[in-house]
């Protein structure tokens, strides 16, 4: 008799995996992703949180709480500026859930919600860095050199990973 793995375990393992893949992909492909003046930031953690929000029963897992926890760890491990992603990740998940509830649950509406979520994550994090004084960037440079390439990369990653992650959750939700 085989034991059934709870979907919560799959969520947690995937969240940790995507968290470390964020940094690994950034490191391995740093010459391509961060070629001056452009920057393409992979947000695989946000992708996992968003797809989990869609594919897991909302009552069984508190994704907003997990978003805050992984945001805190993300801040400590990657940015060194504590407090930015600990608020951004849960805020984006909350807003994404509100938007997604008004749309039909399919690939295209998920694509639209993810587009909005990545725009918010990158915009708010850049704004926080400007306020703190870590960066000095014009709105045009931000839109052209950071937001557009980041959106392109993350939307391609979304298109590649959406159906495999959907199948994974379907297999463990039964």
SSE map:
Blueprint: H1 7-28, H2 30-33, H3 44-55, H4 63-79, H5 85-101, H6 107-132, H7 139-173
Helix pairs in contact: 1-3, 3-4, 3-5, 3-6, 3-7, 4-5, 5-6, 6-7
Main location: membrane
Family: Belongs to the MreD family.
Organism: Lentilactobacillus senioris DSM 24302 = JCM 17472
Strand content range = under 5%
Kindly provide the name of the CATH class.
Mainly Alpha
Structural class: mainly alpha
Mean pLDDT: 88
Number of strands: 0
Taking pLDDT < 50 over at least 5 consecutive residues as the criterion, the unreliable ranges are none
Major sheet description: none
Please bin the fraction of helical residues. Answer: over 70%
Describe the structure in your own words:
With 174 residues, the chain is mainly alpha-helical. It has one domain: Arp2/3 complex 21 kDa subunit ARPC3 (Orthogonal Bundle), CATH 1.10.1760. The protein contains seven helices and no strands. It has helices spanning 7-28, 30-33, 44-55, 63-79, 85-101, 107-132, 139-173. It is found in: Cell membrane.
In brief, what are we looking at here?
The chain has 174 residues and is mainly alpha-helical. 76% of the residues lie in helices and 0% in strands. The chain has one domain: Arp2/3 complex 21 kDa subunit ARPC3 (Orthogonal Bundle).
Distinctive features:
globular; cell shape; Arp2/3 complex 21 kDa subunit ARPC3; single chain; 7 helices; 174 residues; Cell_shape_determining_MreD
């Amino acid at each position: 008799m085989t034991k059934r793995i709870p979907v919560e375990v799959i969520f947690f393992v995937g969240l940790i995996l995507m968290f470390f893949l964020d940094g690994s992909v950034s490191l391995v492909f740093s010459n391509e992703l961060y070629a001056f003046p452009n920057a393409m930031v992979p947000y695989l953690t946000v992708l996992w949180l968003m797809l989990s929000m869609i594919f897991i029963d909302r009552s069984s897992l508190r994704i907003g709480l997990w978003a805050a926890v992984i945001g805190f760890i993300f801040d400590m491990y990657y940015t060194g500026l504590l407090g930015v992603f600990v608020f951004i990740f849960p805020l984006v998940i909350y807003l994404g859930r509100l938007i997604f509830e008004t749309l039909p649950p399919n690939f295209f509406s998920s694509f639209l919600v993810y587009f909005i979520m990545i725009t918010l994550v990158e915009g708010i994090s850049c704004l926080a860095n400007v306020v703190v004084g870590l960066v000095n960037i014009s709105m045009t440079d931000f839109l052209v050199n950071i937001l557009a390439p980041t959106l392109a990369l993350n939307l391609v990653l979304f298109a590649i990973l959406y159906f495999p992650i959907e199948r994974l959750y379907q297999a463990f939700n039964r």
